[in-house]
Design goal:
- By secondary structure, the chain is of the alpha+beta class.
- The protein contains 9 helices and 25 strands.
- It has a 25-stranded antiparallel beta sheet.
- 18% of the residues are buried.
- Mean pLDDT is 81; it is low at 1-46 and 452-460.
Length: 460
């Protein structure tokens, strides 16, 4: 039971990210008529005359505070240390076991199934969260996932939304406290089932409510939902764990199957995804993606339908990482590199620098200067060699960031945390003239209107 409690919060965060598209497939088919085409450039326009809403101001303040925190906590040496740690990422590759699905099956069909009757309690999830966070293991899991506890049963999810656990429900809210999503769990109609209710107001014009029942059998989970307008639950898909190292998700109406197969002897995970139907209703060829996580040669690779897309090799002793991909050839040639299919990132702890190399051709160098509280950049200028004199300087005491190009201060940003304003001084490259602009939270909110991520989180 403790294992369930230690992951229930992280599981809830994951649900907040995937619930809408996954649950929507159970009962909802988009049958909206085609939208009229927008005039060219409309998607890039911003209506600065429209009044700013409370939610937009809240999101602007959240963005302002995020930038202020980055400036206040800027530490060039620590930034280099954190970045260079990526070379040790391959240390986590040695997780392979003979049976990769055994632990998950024990958790679902053993501990979780046995705990389903406790969902009759109206405060099961809320109690489980509190018990989980009473242990050091639970607190550590929370911190490592970037989740900040802001109340007894409330959590900040990376600054973008908050999650509150009330009774047997996870409630997700925007910066103003307005509910965006709610996921509720309850005991199902039989002892081995759980009732799931999902509501979202992310689109105020189309609120969505989805109900489902998950029945946990011996090695299979059957998920039932309601079709549009239906009153009865009907089986929609089945998740099958009956075979070793294989998880299958089968549509019970169209019989399409998605599989996740673990191949420990090759350090591979093969994911097969059925293709959609074409215009005449025939299924399109399925897609097979293979992820290789190899602890022997410390590499991570991705292949799709037999075509190698990317392989990353880690060299912790040399403090280097090499990326190999056919798509890099044109990119490296355009940047003055060798035009090869690889890029190598070389870290030097003594100089706190990062070199980016294509073959034998240097493309860029980043130097993290603790003395100047800056990041200095040199980039390839082709036959002219490396061009330096580019830097980003941060003054935490003054809440100030300056971008310098060839000795000229091109951009200067200063935050006034009390007045919540941003002063931006910039230079026009053609006229060499400098302009200064002061932005309020309202100005920032208007600028953010064109950002899809922000608009998705606003509920009017």
């Amino acid at each position: 039971m403790k294992k369930i409690l230690s992951i229930v919060l992280i599981f809830a965060v994951c649900l907040s990210l995937i619930a809408t598209p996954v649950f929507a497939q159970i009962t909802y088919e988009n049958k909206q008529p085609a939208q009229p085409e927008e005039p060219a450039g409309a998607e890039d326009s911003v209506d600065f005359d429209m009044p700013v809403s409370e939610a937009e101001i809240a999101n602007a303040r959240m963005t302002f505070n995020l930038v202020a925190n980055y400036i206040a906590e800027f530490d060039a040496a620590q930034l280099y240390a954190d970045l260079s740690e990526i070379v040790n990422f391959s240390d986590s590759f040695d997780f392979w076991k003979d049976d990769m699905t055994a632990d998950l099956k024990n958790l679902i069909f053993g501990e979780l199934k046995a705990s389903l009757p406790t969902l009759d309690s109206s405060t099961f999830l809320e109690d489980a969260i509190r018990e989980s966070l009473s242990s050091e293991e639970g607190k550590s899991s929370l911190a490592s996932a970037g989740i900040k506890q802001i109340g007894d049963n409330a959590f900040d999810l990376m600054g973008f939304m908050t999650m509150t656990v009330e009774g047997n429900a996870y409630i997700y809210s925007d910066a103003t406290g307005k509910v965006i999503q709610k996921l509720s769990l309850a005991a199902g109609p039989d002892p081995d089932s759980v009732y799931i209710n999902f509501e979202t107001n992310a689109d105020p014009d189309q609120p969505l409510v989805i109900e489902a029942i998950a029945h946990i059998g011996d090695d299979k989970i059957t998920v039932s939902g309601k079709e549009d307008g239906a009153t009865e639950f009907e089986p929609q898909f089945e998740i099958d764990f009956s075979e070793k190292n294989l998880v299958s998700i089968i549509g019970l109406k169209d019989e399409k199957k998605m599989t996740v197969q673990f191949i420990p002897e090759n350090y591979q995970i093969s994911i097969t995804t059925p293709g959609p139907n074409d215009e005449i209703g025939e299924p399109v060829e399925e897609q097979v993606s293979v992820v290789e996580i190899n602890p022997e040669n410390k590499s991570f690779g991705l292949t799709v339908n037999g075509e190698e897309l990317l392989t990353v090799y880690f060299y912790p002793e040399e403090k280097e990482i090499t990326l190999v991909s056919p798509g890099l050839a044109d990119a490296t040639a355009g940047l003055g590199g060798s035009g090869g299919e690889s890029l190598t990132f070389k870290f030097d702890d003594e100089t706190m620098s990062l070199d980016v190399v294509s073959g034998e051709s240097p493309l860029a160098e980043l130097v993290f200067s603790q003395e100047n509280s800056a990041i200095d950049l040199s980039i390839s200028a082709g036959e002219m060699g490396m061009m330096s004199g580019i830097s980003l300087r941060v003054d935490a005491a003054a809440n100030n960031v300056v971008f310098v190009f060839m000795g000229m201060e091109m951009f200067n940003l200063t935050l006034d945390t009390e007045a919540e304003t941003i002063s931006i001084a910039s230079v026009d490259m053609e006229t060499q003239s400098k302009t200064t602009e002061v932005l309020t939270l309202e100005d920032l909110a208007k600028m953010l209107r064109n950002q899809v991520g922000v608009e998705a989180g606003i509920v009017e």
